[in-house]
Design goal:
The chain is mostly helical and 592 residues long. The protein is 65% helix and 6% strand. The protein has helices at 2-10, 12-19, 22-33, 35-49, 60-71, 77-94, 105-120, 146-165, 178-185, 187-208, 212-227, 230-245, 250-274, 288-291, 302-309, 313-327, 332-337, 347-368, 383-390, 395-433, 441-468, 479-488, 502-517, 551-561, 570-577, 580-590; strands at residues 122-128, 131-137, 491-497, 521-527, 540-543, 564-566. The strands form 2 sheets. Strands 4-3-5-6 form a 4-stranded parallel β-sheet, with helices on both faces. Strands 1-2 form a two-stranded antiparallel sheet. α4 runs antiparallel to α5 (60-71) and α12 packs antiparallel against α13. The relative contact order is 0.08. The model is unreliable at 440-486 (pLDDT under 50).
């Protein structure tokens, strides 16, 4: 097992390189930027549909209003994703542009949205009340058009890069205001991107008889069909857990490629549910509630196992510290505290638990009558509650939750016990080295307290004598402390992670530490990918361990803006979240 882990560590740079791929980053960050659409639209949908589950009939105008809000948010998500993906891809491309050449992310955003409409939407005329109307087929404006959104975004940014790097732009005299001049500079690349996507649209429609968005779905349908089988679901889940195990944020690599079909399947499940049928798709957006039950690795039950069944002090402490965060799918305290990542004892259960969970979910959906997931709930919703809601409050879903909790406990327990024995042996060895008895506490108090006091007194007495030798008013503060105080006073700190969950833990610790020490420090939490518009408002940016692979890209931006960038490693980061005063001390020590 150790040999396997060493081999994985050896290839970790390669996997980190994959996670830093600018296309994957743009897709992930672009989709993340549109998450408010997914979550907010789902709230209106729940308002319109769930009262009927308990026999409450809402007024039809209210239902129609909620459905309209859903259709005009989730129904145009594809267009919005085209813009946010192009914006994030532009940010990555600007780091690779020649000096003095910059792509306008506002212009690429709009151009990508226009290009996406050309690739995905069909326009036709129809008669209504005797008049001819021009109509848009909105089917592919939403999640069904996500592939077209990505293609449009990438084509747009590459066209802009080609034109701007070669000065293929309209230049106006320097007396023209900058904002107006920028609009004219964008005309050629904007037109080029739209024309290329328009040509692709014409070619595909004439050769295949379908819009570009339908072509991709048709070509990739065998792959999607395979992904919704038992082996497909297991492979997706195993890859997600495997990447996390070696320290690379697995969802960032695996999910961007399958998000379009996951969202489309969940939307189809919803339509079937509202029509009174059985939603049968298992590869859906909220299947992550099952495969990542409590976080990647299906760790929901693990903190409780650590508290109840482990004997080592380390694991019991980790269990107590992580039980609440893990309940809300923030399992980094467990991943880095136990640790789970790159721990040879944990490889098999960390990968296997989620695979078993998705297999059981598919069995329940296909054979037991449990609904496929239909409603979208936030990723931080406690998994048992989220599963119950998104299956439309089925009681069988609660039975399913109980079964996977039991299975996960069975999978993890023997491996945890083996690891616990190793830690207990190590703790006993350390105790023996210090000449301690098995309980340790009494011996420490009896044998070390007096010498410790004596040493402390000896160290303090000269200081006190020196203080008495001259008036306190004439003693300046130590130079090091004064400079440190100046460095941190008024500091603004932004902590970034993948989903703004882990980052909130450190941001809150810094706030608490600032209150304890009297420092004027403001801290905020955010998700990597959503930081570009606000990062210039901060003095320090801290990358959480799961986004540490983006350090080099981030460093280019922070150096340009004169911002200090810090990236603590896993265990260190988790320790800082538990030690507010230590977090402030750490900031001081790491500021130039």
């Amino acid at each position: 097992m150790d040999a396997i882990v060493k081999m994985l560590e050896k290839h970790q740079p390669f996997f980190e390189k994959i996670s830093r791929n600018i296309y994957l980053q743009a897709i992930k960050d672009g989709f993340l930027g549109c998450m408010p659409i997914v979550l907010t639209s789902s709230i209106f949908l729940l308002i319109a549909t769930l009262p009927g589950v308990v026999g409450i009939t809402l007024p039809q105008p209210l239902i129609d209003w909620c459905n309209k809000l859903y259709n005009f948010t989730m129904g145009v998500m594809g267009i919005m994703v085209a813009g946010t993906t192009a914006k994030n891809f532009t940010a990555s491309m600007n780091r690779r542009m020649p000096a003095g050449k910059v792509l306008n992310d506002g212009s690429t955003m709009v151009a990508a949205q226009c290009s996406m409409l050309l690739l995905a939407v069909t326009q036709f005329t129809t008669k209504f009340n005797g008049s001819e109307l021009s109509v848009f087929d909105c089917t592919s404006m939403g999640t069904r058009g996500l592939f077209s959104a990505y293609i449009a975004a990438f084509i747009t940014v590459w066209v802009y890069k080609f034109c701007v790097s070669r000065d293929l732009t309209i230049k106006l005299p320097k007396e023209v205001p900058g904002a107006i001049a920028q609009n004219f500079r964008d005309i050629i690349p904007f037109g080029g991107a739209v024309i290329i996507c328009g040509i692709i649209d014409v070619v595909v429609r004439n050769l295949m008889g379908v819009p570009f968005s339908e072509l991709l779905i048709k070509l990739l349908s065998p792959l999607f069909t395979a992904a919704e089988t038992y082996p497909g679901l297991i492979l997706i889940q195993a890859a997600t857990a495997f990447f996390w195990f070696i320290g690379v944020h697995g969802p960032s690599i695996v999910q961007p490629g399958i998000d379009p079909i996951r969202l489309a399947n969940q939307a189809e499940n919803l339509q079937v549910l509202l029509a009174g049928g059985h939603p049968a798709h298992s590869l859906t957006f909220n299947m992550s509630l099952v495969g990542e039950f409590g976080g990647t690795g299906a760790t929901f039950i693990v903190p409780l196992l650590l508290i109840l069944f482990m004997k080592s002090k380390q694991l019991k402490a980790v269990g107590k510290a992580s039980i609440v965060p893990v309940a809300f799918a923030v399992n980094e305290p467990l991943l880095f505290g136990a640790p789970m990542i790159l721990n040879p004892y944990m490889l098999i259960p960390f990968v296997a638990a989620g695979c078993v969970n998705v297999s059981v979910a598919k069995f329940f959906i296909d054979n037991v009558g449990m609904n496929g997931f239909s409603f979208v709930v936030p990723w931080a919703t406690p998994a048992p509650i989220g599963i119950f809601i998104t299956t439309n409050f089925q009681l069988i879903a609660l039975v399913f939750v109980a079964i996977i909790i039991l299975l996960d406990a069975i999978i993890y327990l023997p491996f945890l016990k083996a690891y616990d024995k190793l830690l207990c042996d190590q703790e006993a060895e350390r105790a023996a080295e210090l000449g301690l008895e098995s309980d340790g506490a009494a011996t420490i108090a009896a044998s070390t307290s007096a010498p410790a006091v004596e040493q402390a007194t000896a160290a303090v007495e000269p200081t006190a004598a020196a203080a008495d030798s001259k008036p306190v008013a004439n003693q300046p503060e130590p130079a090091a402390d004064a400079s440190v105080k100046k460095d941190v006073d008024g500091l603004k700190v932004l902590v970034l992670c993948a989903g703004a969950g882990t980052s909130a833990m450190l941001a809150n610790a810094i706030k608490e530490g600032a209150a304890q020490t009297g420092e004027n420090i403001a801290s905020s939490a955010g998700a990597y990918g959503q930081h570009t518009a606000i990062m210039d408002q901060y003095d320090v940016i801290v990358l959480a361990p799961q986004v540490r692979s983006y350090y080099n890209d981030m460093k280019a931006d922070t150096d340009r803006l004169g911002i200090k960038l810090l990236a603590p490693r896993g265990k260190e980061y988790i320790d800082l979240t538990r030690d507010p005063a230590g977090a402030i001390k750490w900031l001081r020590e790491n500021l130039d």
